[in-house]
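Encode chain A's predicted structure.
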Amino acid sequence: HPEIASQSGKKFLLGMALEDRDIVQSASFGVGLIAEHAPVQFQPIKQAAVTQLMQIIGEADARSEDKEVCTECAIGALGKIVLLHYDNAIVNQAHVHQYLTMLPLKAESEEAQNVHKLFFKHILGKNTALFGVPENKDKIVGALARIKEIATTKPTLEILDT
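Encoded structure for chain A:
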């Protein structure tokens, strides 16, 4: 339903700008879903979505206990955009680097599992956003090492879908 996806995307952008972290979290998740499942309808909101997600992720207290789940939802949405909509213009290597340095996710196991699974899939697929520049190799290896470390040392977080 292209029209529903288009209208929803615009509403999600509005929700991402609110103060209520629960709404921001849900809106960020929604933007990620549209990026993943309605790529054509996502294009008109891509610039605004990336800008707002980077603002959410970049807040000084983004990793505080009150905001961590919301922030990780925004990181997950940014990851979908980076992996599926990289254009080296609106979505560029600065966004790829931001995404890679924010992994692993660990606040909410289901979201963490989905984000990490998508990341692994795109590593195996040699995604251009990830492998387009040689400097990313170390960042990818670092992200994988951090995911492995958390999965091994804190298995109760269930950040991997086993």
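The chain has a mean pLDDT of 95.
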